[in-house]
Amino acid sequence: MASFVDRVVLHVSGGTGGHGCVSVKREKFKPLGGPDGGNGGNGGDVILRVSSQTTTLLDYHHAPHRHATNGGPGMGDWRGGKNGETLVLPVPDGTVVKTKDGEVLADLVGEGTEYIAAAGGLGGLGNAALSSQKRRAPGFALLGIEGESSDIVLELKSIADIALVGFPSAGKSSLIAAMSAARPKIADYPFTTLVPNLGVVQAGDIRFTIADVPGLIEGASEGKGLGHNFLRHVERCAALVHVLDCGTLESDRDPLSDLAIIEAELEKYAVDMSYAGVDGEVVPLNERPKLVVLNKVDLPDGKDMAEFVRPDLEARGYRVFEVSATSHEGLRPLSFAMAEIVKAARDAVEVAPPKVAPPVLRPRAVNESGFRIRREEKNLEPLFRVLGEKPVRWVKQTDFTNEEAIGYLADRLAKLGVETELFKVGAKPGDTVVIGEDDGVVFDWEPTMMAGAELLATPRGTDIRVADIGDRPTRSQKREEQIERREAKAAARAELEAERKAGIWTESVSRRRAQTVKESNLDAGDDD
């Protein structure tokens, strides 16, 4: 069973907003109390917050689906719905939030740092909030909107100043146990350390943190051993300390070859862009300050090996320290050397001026409508897709079982200028209009839906403009009716032309009138 997890995929979703209420105030002796429907409550947010009491992402490994509380619906008597409770998810210090594509969303460093992983949905307005001088008693309310939902990746990168790297069984765990109060697992077999260990070291007035990561071997970049899985925990470190085993019993290994192999593996590791140095650039691991520790000099063979390889290492420009984690020999000079590097890194951060991009204020252009229309084609017929924050949100808030709510949506879209823009891009009555992306709402556009429903004397909850919306003919039916009308007109024109050619239209009006009078006189004589 896993006890340390430093990478998880978390599925988060904010709470759904509560629906607005449709209600009319009814009290004795107050027959015209007016609308009193309250607004729905907002959905709760999902927030990631750094907590010192959390050291692993294990909880989210077992329960990766997290959902905030929904908002309550509005009620009569102007009572608003209850807001959904915010779901706070504690994460360790140094957690990086990414998308599945690797884009960094947030780098959570420092106690109490927060990031809104999924915002809750807005609550719908009740009919009391929708009333106006023209629309005094709305018979509808707006629906609540679903909260945001996303899949995010959490990666834990330990907050340490110094990183200990080296082969398995080089003595890294023993070294961190000797220099700090940390008590990692120590045994006489390789890969004893399976998870990163942290220890706090005090050197004079400087206090810093050292990290011990599982050992690297040749081919780690290709997945051998534990691979590069834990090198993310040393990305924030100011310096690396190579721990070389001078008392190894393997005949094919020596400190110089071990150092060359580890340096080659570090060079193959690409540092994540979520960590940046003082100048805002990412510094590769093999280009950071380094110290070389020749460990296990308490052994006779270890002391001889350290004296043999030390001149070669110093000739390469390394600062070399001969230490023993067992006898604590050489640990004090090593700790002060680490503190010197840490202090220089911290001073550089404090002295370097922060690079803050100046805020750029871009007011909305005068001719900017807040939406755009994209012409597409589906099944060889035109399709017009309306995209924009407002139109998409308004559609989500509309109750399509209520005629007045549909009319209200038409009024809002017309006021925004959607209908005018559809005319400009060449839309015709009966064309398909989609508001939103793939899951958008599909309409058969009817430009006769003009604004002004509040001026129409219709019962609450109805709209004469959409009262027969269910009986409207489809586009194919409209096309058939148009063909039938065209054929009827053609037949009528043919009949009239035939009568003209037969001479029926050559009689004068006076002759036809005289004939009519004569026939009337004959009918009168017969009656006598």
Main features:
6-stranded mixed sheet, alpha/beta, 19% strand, single chain, 11 helices, 528 residues
Structure report:
This protein is an alpha/beta fold. The protein is built from eleven helices and 18 strands. The strands form four sheets. A six-stranded mixed sheet has the order 10-11-9-12-13-14, sandwiched between helices. Strands 3-1-8-5-6 form a five-stranded mixed sheet. Strand 15 and strand 16 form a beta hairpin. It starts with 6 loop residues before the first strand and ends with a helix. About 1% of the residues have low confidence.
Number of helices: 11
State mean pLDDT (0 to 100 scale): 79
Q: What characterizes the major β-sheet?
A: 6 strands, mixed
Kindly name the structural category. alpha/beta
Task: Please give the radius of gyration in angstroms.
Answer: 40 Å
Shape type? elongated
Q: What is the H/E string? A: EEHEEEEEHEEHEEEHEHEHEEHHHEEHH
